[in-house]
Design a protein that fits this description.
The chain is α+β, with helices and mostly antiparallel strands and 573 residues long. The protein folds into three domains: 7-18 and 54-147, Phosphorylase Kinase, domain 1, CATH 3.30.200; 153-311, Transferase(Phosphotransferase), domain 1; 420-572, Jelly Rolls (Sandwich). It has helices at 7-12, 22-29, 33-39, 46-53, 111-124, 155-160, 166-185, 213-218, 225-242, 266-269, 275-284, 302-311, 364-396, 403-408; strands at residues 68-69, 73-82, 85-92, 97-105, 132-138, 141-147, 153-154, 198-200, 206-208, 341-343, 349-351, 420-421, 425-429, 453-454, 471-490, 497-504, 518-524, 528-548, 551-552, 561-562, 565-572. Strands 12, 13, 14, 15, 16, 17, 18 and 21 form an eight-stranded antiparallel beta sheet that branches. It has a six-stranded antiparallel beta sheet with strand order 1-2-3-4-6-5. Strands 7-8-9 form a three-stranded antiparallel beta sheet. Strand 5 (132-138) and strand 6 (141-147) form a beta hairpin. The N and C termini lie far apart (70 Å). Residues 1-60, 331-355 and 396-413 have low confidence and may be disordered.
Length: 573
């Protein structure tokens, strides 16, 4: 039995991003998601169905804005109240950041499965998913705390504005299929991969929310979880190419396909669709093997889909468009009148017969003039070079008074010895809204070699982009200082680490970095990196920004992957 519509949840189940359009809310509220979920084979077991019938006994907790959980999470706005659970936007008062919270009674039939799903998702630690931060049973309540991404946009809202450009669709299917392949390798499925579950950050990264948890909240299960998630990714790609939902019913603000015609290839729905992406979408969707070319086998797992996307030619971003330069107006100064018509008073035009321009000098006199001018130029250049050399030699021997001597004294400027600059405070720098280890920032400059600030462990590297532009810290030097170098002791060596320091205007954790204010940058494969500036910059605040990190094994804090830690940072000026 297919799961009944849970469309109202898709509208409000928001962990950051722009609100859905009125069209999306109406279409979703009509229950159009039923077709897709039935195609995903999300059948409930008999025991789950009995639990569904008994859920009336477990109503959503009567909470209100201002209620505080664990003396830390202050509820601010309820975004969902359905099926005995509620979802909220809240404030983590300890770390001063917005979070999302799912709440349900401890005696709810699905409370145990929600806790188990949340804890399994948290152990994955993949930054391509919206992270579960806490999963607690307390005071007859079960609640799950997750990241809130205020700078992100739901795929639902992106599709409401029109189909995506080919490169953007390529990034969508690449990132989502690779992320879900990694999740399934750890035994985790999503089963609710709808447009409202996909968020696009301001840096162009796609993040997936609700891994395992969204399905557990609704009691969804499947005998073929990999096939269900693969088909869902195919539907997302299809929608991004056509702005149509690949089933007959409307859903998520998108119109469905015409009734009775079956699954049409994307290039038959909309002109100009990228052929390779259209074929990938058809191979991922459950369509009885009717792929776009009828030659390639269907993709039944996210791993197969990710490999199929990787095998196709890479789609590059479109060339930037620039405004056409203004046309230059013809100048009005007097030009030659050879063979031109001259205007006369009264509108009468008279053609003036003029002689042709004089021919260039070809006589012996002309040749003599040319050679004479050339000789004069050579003599002038030689005289100038001799005077320049004489001036330089004179300055080296101490003769004359130079500009630097006038300003700095007769002995000239002296090289100043580097002066250590004390760090008065620090914070984590995370412009994408996802911090790494904010509680451990002080370990990066405490002078203790046994403590360190650490990043999370990432699946891909050494370059963190495009999944994450970088990780870093922002330091306060107490007052404006001339910063000329930074010495950084790293936790992990191997492969390579690339870092840079920037002058910034404040302790903001997300202000954009200005390339013109870069102080220094460098790369190392060892555990020590010294960054030296060609020209010191005067600033009070300095951002240390890491864009490439080495691969390291598992430790007490994180699993093996691409990561880095900072044991000590010292600035000099």
């Amino acid at each position: 039995m297919a799961e009944r519509s849970t469309a109202a949840v898709d509208v409000a189940d928001n962990s950051g991003g722009e609100p859905l359009t009125a069209k999306a809310e109406k279409a979703t509220a009509d229950g159009a998601a039923e077709t897709q979920e039935s195609r995903q084979a999300t059948d409930r077991t008999t025991a789950e169905a009995e639990g569904e019938r008994g859920r009336s006994a477990a109503s959503a907790p009567e909470l209100h804005s201002g209620h505080k959980l664990a003396r830390r999470y202050r509820l601010e706005e309820c975004v969902t109240r359905l099926d005995g659970f509620s979802s909220w936007r809240a404030m983590d008062e300890k770390l001063r950041r917005a979070v999302g919270v799912h709440l349900l009674p401890a005696d709810h039939p699905r409370a145990r499965s929600v806790l188990a799903a949340a804890r399994s998702s948290a152990l994955l630690g993949d930054p391509r998913f919206v992270q579960v931060l806490d999963a607690v049973e307390e005071n007859d309540l079960v609640y799950v705390v997750h990241e809130w991404l205020p700078d992100s946009t739901e795929l639902t809202a992106l599709l409401a504005a029109g189909p995506l450009e080919a490169h953007e669709s390529y990034q969508l299917v690449t990132q989502v299929s690779q992320a879900m392949a990694a999740a399934h390798r750890e035994g985790l499925a999503h089963l609710r991969l709808t447009p409202s579950a996909i968020l696009r950050t301001s840096t162009g990264q796609y993040r997936i929310r609700g891994l395992a948890v969204n399905a557990a909240l609704r009691g969804i299960s499947s005998d073929t979880p990999q096939r269900a998630d693969t088909e869902a990714i195919g539907a997302l790609l299809y929608a991004s190419l056509t702005q149509r939902w690949p089933y007959e019913n409307d859903a998520y603000g998108l119109s469905g396909l015409p009734k009775g015609v079956g699954l049409l290839p994307p290039d038959q729905v909309r002109a100009g669709v990228h052929r390779g992406l259209a074929e990938i979408a058809m191979r991922a969707l459950a369509n009885d093997g009717a792929t776009a070319s009828r030659q390639e086998p269907p993709c039944t797992t996210p791993e197969e889909l990710a490999k199929a996307v990787a095998a196709m030619p890479r789609i590059r971003p479109p060339e930037p468009t620039f405004a056409a330069p203004p046309e230059y107006q013809q100048t009005t100064y007097q030009q030659g009148t050879y063979g031109r018509a001259a205007a006369r008073p009264g509108g009468v035009t008279q053609v003036i017969a003029t002689a042709p321009p004089p021919a260039p000098l070809q006589s012996g006199t002309g040749r003599v003039l040319k050679w004479g001018v050339a000789a004069l130029l050579i003599a002038a250049l030689g005289l100038g070079s001799w005077q320049l050399a004489d001036t330089i030699l004179d300055r080296k021997s101490g003769g004359g008074t130079t500009q630097s001597q006038t300003e700095e004294g007769e002995e000239g400027p002296k090289n100043k010895a580097p002066v250590p600059l004390a760090v008065k405070g620090a914070d984590e720098y995370f412009p994408d809204g996802t911090s790494q280890n904010r509680d451990g920032v002080a370990n990066a400059y405490d002078g203790d070699a046994s403590t360190y600030w650490r990043s999370k462990s990432y699946v891909d590297g050494p370059k963190l982009a495009p999944f994450k532009e970088g990780v870093g810290l922002v330091f306060d030097l107490g007052s404006e200082k001339e910063v000329s170098a930074a010495s950084i002791t790293l936790r992990y060596s191997g492969d390579h680490t690339t870092a840079a320091i920037y002058a910034v205007d404040s302790m903001s954790t997300s202000a954009a970095l200005d390339p013109k204010k870069k102080i220094a940058s460098g790369t190392t494969s060892a555990d020590k990196l010294v960054l030296k500036a060609k020209q010191p910059k005067k600033t009070r605040y300095v951002v240390l920004w890491l864009t490439d990190v080495p691969r390291s094994g598992s430790d007490e804090f994180s699993r093996s992957g691409y990561k880095q830690g900072i044991t000590d940072v010292k600035f000099t000026g």
